[in-house]
Structures are given as structure tokens and as C-alpha cells.
Amino acid sequence: MAVDLTQDPAVEELARRTAQFVREVVIPVEEREHGVARSEDVRIELQRAARQAGVFAPHVSAEFGGHGLDMLGRAAVFEQAGYSLLGPLALNIAAPDEGNMHMLEAIATEEQKEQYLRPLATGEVRSCFAMTEPAPGAGSDPSALSTRAERVPGGWRIDGHKWFITGAEGAAFAICMARTAGAPGDQGGATMFLVDADNPGMKTIRHIETLDESLYGGHLELVFDNCVVPDSAVLGAPDQGFRYAQVRLGPARMTHCMRWLGIAQRSQDIAVARAAERRIFGSRLGELGMAQQMIADNEIDIAAARGLILQACWELDQGRSASQSTAIAKTFCAEAIWRVVDRSLQLCGSLGVSGDIPLGRFLREVRPFRIYDGPSETHRWAIARRVLRQHDRAAQR
């Protein structure tokens, strides 16, 4: 089958308007807030402006107020939104809400969509995804899931310990992954539950101090202690949580790549502007060979990352699992984006280290991406396993 990566003209126009909106509206707010939105007032301000500009919620269907873009279309628009640290928040496509919306549209009941998806899609509320646990619980290996949910009259009781739950501060609800069958290490037996924030059994332990700060709502440590939810809180079917998670994880990895690629492009733009104007050793910085190599290597990394994202998105839009292509794209992008920001900072010298331009902030924000959504080492292990399995199958024919 031929791979067609051509964007629809309507998508190209939405991407153009998104780029204009981010540069004219969002970046001034980012500069004012030093790259971190610390209040609901900032979120509301940005999202109101995005609605007025007609670029809000590009990923959800028109039924829920969005533009209904497929994964290939999202790649173009999300990259433009990601040109600012606050662009995804403005368009309501920031993690974890964007991934939760994608999953809710795919597997929630009609009642759950009205109760949870609609207010999430409109920006009325925020959400979080509670899967990661402290060691030895679920992390890079989701099958290590140890949080349990037991049947009780009329519903379920959830007990467990979660941490690094992004966006949990101020979230209206959590999608909690809990084990309903088997034991830690088993490949099945997980169930997803919708847990309202006012449930007394879901408790915040602390905010985790991290290198990055721009993901709205922080990273929290939570405890589910005698957290009772009704049967209607089950998202999808019991014991199918790991299967449903794949609906979210592959696309969410790609949307992370899209957003951070925008920051890589902005870092390159800052560095190129500096190289064009800075005079050193009798010439422009950009005329020196080592500077040119860094600029060229940035271009190569950005182009390669974009190509891998588009390939994976095309496969997802074709209904394929795209496990290998999303793993390859995520691993490469996480490392390439870091390289681009790092080279850009180096090109800007002392200015890059200073707070006068945002490259130092960008460097802190992109570094954890090599760990979030699966560390590079875990993805490489999975990539190699698939290659070896393919070899073994071919050898047996």
C-alpha cells in the first residue's frame, strides 16, 4: 500500500492559523509567565483566546466541539501549537487531557462521554491518568501493576499507591488503572476506572519536585485507600485495561513528539537568528564551520523526527497497531529534540544559558521526555525483540 502523507488543505490552513495564534497571542503570555502557567486564570485566558481564534480542540470530533483531525492532521497542527510551551494548554491538547479525550471518545459509554468527555473537551475541567506506581509497581513495565480493585456491593473498592500522576492537581477526575484479576507480572487483568476528584478514597500525598515545570497541574503522588466507585465508573470492560491502554499510549506518544518538535523548531529558529547577527573572530557566527555543522545537524534531526512522526501517524490512521513505528519515532524524537535544544543553546553561548532567552527553560522541559512515555532503553528493548521475532518467523517458513 502506498504511503500518502499529503495534508488536506483545511488542515494546512488550520496549522497556519495555529502558528499565527501561537506567535501573536501565546508567546507573549509565555514570556510574561516565564514558560509556566501557574494559575487557572492563565489557562482560562489562553483557552478563551484559542476559541476566539477558531483553533481550539483540533483533535476531538465536531460532536464535542473540535475539528476532528486524524493523527496525520494532528501532526501538522500540534507541532505548530508546540512552538510555545503554553501552546498545547491553550488549544486544550496538552498531556494528559489530550490522551484521555482520545481514549474516552474510543471506548467510553454515551453516558460517560456526556459526564466526562464533553466538559473535558470544552476545557470546563481537566483530568489525569493514574497508572504509574512507585517501584516495584507499574512503570516502564505496566504488567507490574499492583493497585487492586475488588468487587463490593454495587461497585468496586480501589486500593493502591500511584505517583508521577501528571495534571492531578485540580483535575476533576482520574482514570485509574487497577488490577482486577491475576497478580503483578501478569499480562492481563487490569481495569480502568473513572474516579471523581471529590471521592474521599483518592488522596493527594505530595507534589513531586521535578526538572520540568510546564506540564499543567504538576506531577503528584496519590493514594487510593478504600476508594469506592460504582459499576458505572468502569471504563470499557473489566480486565481489559491493558488492551484499552494501547488505544491511548501509541497516539499519546506521537502527540508528545509533535508538541516537543515545535519546541525544537523554535530553538533552531532562535539559534539561527543569533548565528546570523552575532559577529565573532571577524565574521558572522553562522559563517564559521562548527556553527554551520550544528545548524545543519539540527535541520537533519528536525526533518528526520518529523518524517518518523508522519509515518507512525499514517499507520495509526490506517488502523494498524503501529507499535514498532511509534516506538522508533518516540525514541528518536526524544533524543533528537534534546540534541536540537542543546546545540541551539550552545550556539547562543552565554546568552543561551541566561534567562534572557528561553533555551535554558526548554532544555529542562525536554530532558524528561527521554523517560516519560517509556524510557529510550525500554523502547529499544521492545524494538529489538520485534525485529528478532520477525527474523525467527521468517526462518521457520
TrEMBL record:
<dbReference type="InterPro" id="IPR013786">
    <property type="entry name" value="AcylCoA_DH/ox_N"/>
</dbReference>
<feature type="domain" description="Acyl-CoA oxidase/dehydrogenase middle">
    <location>
        <begin position="128"/>
        <end position="211"/>
    </location>
</feature>
<dbReference type="Pfam" id="PF02770">
    <property type="entry name" value="Acyl-CoA_dh_M"/>
</dbReference>
<dbReference type="GO" id="GO:0005737">
    <property type="term" value="C:cytoplasm"/>
</dbReference>
<dbReference type="GO" id="GO:0050660">
    <property type="term" value="F:flavin adenine dinucleotide binding"/>
</dbReference>
<keyword id="KW-0560">Oxidoreductase</keyword>
<dbReference type="InterPro" id="IPR006091">
    <property type="entry name" value="Acyl-CoA_Oxase/DH_mid-dom"/>
</dbReference>
<dbReference type="InterPro" id="IPR006089">
    <property type="entry name" value="Acyl-CoA_DH_CS"/>
</dbReference>
<dbReference type="InterPro" id="IPR009075">
    <property type="entry name" value="AcylCo_DH/oxidase_C"/>
</dbReference>
<feature type="domain" description="Acyl-CoA dehydrogenase/oxidase N-terminal">
    <location>
        <begin position="12"/>
        <end position="124"/>
    </location>
</feature>
<comment type="subunit">
    <text>Homodimer.</text>
</comment>
<dbReference type="GO" id="GO:0003995">
    <property type="term" value="F:acyl-CoA dehydrogenase activity"/>
</dbReference>
<keyword id="KW-0285">Flavoprotein</keyword>
<feature type="domain" description="Acyl-CoA dehydrogenase/oxidase C-terminal">
    <location>
        <begin position="239"/>
        <end position="388"/>
    </location>
</feature>
<dbReference type="InterPro" id="IPR036250">
    <property type="entry name" value="AcylCo_DH-like_C"/>
</dbReference>
<protein>
    <submittedName>
        <fullName>Acyl-CoA dehydrogenase family protein</fullName>
    </submittedName>
</protein>
<dbReference type="InterPro" id="IPR009100">
    <property type="entry name" value="AcylCoA_DH/oxidase_NM_dom_sf"/>
</dbReference>
<keyword id="KW-0274">FAD</keyword>
<comment type="similarity">
    <text>Belongs to the acyl-CoA dehydrogenase family.</text>
</comment>
<dbReference type="InterPro" id="IPR050741">
    <property type="entry name" value="Acyl-CoA_dehydrogenase"/>
</dbReference>
<dbReference type="Pfam" id="PF02771">
    <property type="entry name" value="Acyl-CoA_dh_N"/>
</dbReference>
<dbReference type="InterPro" id="IPR037069">
    <property type="entry name" value="AcylCoA_DH/ox_N_sf"/>
</dbReference>
<dbReference type="InterPro" id="IPR046373">
    <property type="entry name" value="Acyl-CoA_Oxase/DH_mid-dom_sf"/>
</dbReference>
<dbReference type="GO" id="GO:0033539">
    <property type="term" value="P:fatty acid beta-oxidation using acyl-CoA dehydrogenase"/>
</dbReference>
<dbReference type="Pfam" id="PF00441">
    <property type="entry name" value="Acyl-CoA_dh_1"/>
</dbReference>
